[in-house]
Design a protein that fits this description.
With 180 residues, the protein is of the alpha+beta class. 44% of the residues lie in helices and 31% in strands. A hairpin with a 5-residue loop joins β1 and β2.
Length: 180
């Protein structure tokens, strides 16, 4: 591999990682099935993988990698297009009920040697589960200040907007708009 190909591969990998991170954040605020997203991304990804399979000299390695990269890029693109094209002017305020609140304990890791990674201190991440009027639920991460103040059964105002592809996107309004 030449230096130019190596640089292009590194840049493409960084772009793929950034796209995937952005898509994961946006997926957390979008009501859409992951099966639908994967299904919409699968056909173009199969076509790309087939073209790579035909043209590449090391086809059994290049085709599956290009298929996975194409699915990630296309799915990320669909989510980003839906989120960026949402119509904020026609947002529908909706009441969501806090169905549950819970914490997840995670641990930080630290490197102690060349091949040894030790688990460090633990920390908590705080979540609430929102149940909307149509029966759908969504897990939402909140800061500890809000977690302490929230009560199960409390109603929260949430703005629902239609995305460019028709998938609803929700945005939580500030805590001052909550009701008891």
């Amino acid at each position: 591999m030449t230096t130019r190909q190596t640089i292009i591969t590194i840049i493409a990998s960084l772009i793929l990682i950034a796209l995937s991170g952005t898509a994961l954040y946006i997926y957390g605020h979008t009501f859409v099935s992951p099966i639908l997203i994967a299904g919409l991304a699968a056909l173009p990804a199969l076509i790309i993988a087939a073209l790579v399979f035909v043209k590449s000299s090391n086809r059994w390695l290049a085709a599956p990698i290009s298929f996975l990269c194409a699915i990630l890029c296309i799915a990320s693109g669909l989510l980003i297009i839906n989120y960026a094209g949402r119509d904020k002017a026609h947002s529908q305020p909706q009441k969501a009920t806090i169905a549950a609140k819970f914490t997840e304990e995670r641990s930080r890791t630290r490197r102690s040697g060349r091949r040894y990674v030790a688990s460090g201190e633990t920390y908590n991440v705080y979540f609430i589960t929102l149940r909307f009027e149509d029966g759908s639920t969504k897990k939402h991460e909140i800061p500890v200040r809000e977690y302490v103040k929230t009560r199960i059964g409390r109603k929260i105002n949430v703005n629902l907007t239609k995305g460019l592809l028709g998938w609803p996107v929700y945005e939580k309004t500030p805590p001052s708009s909550t009701e008891k």
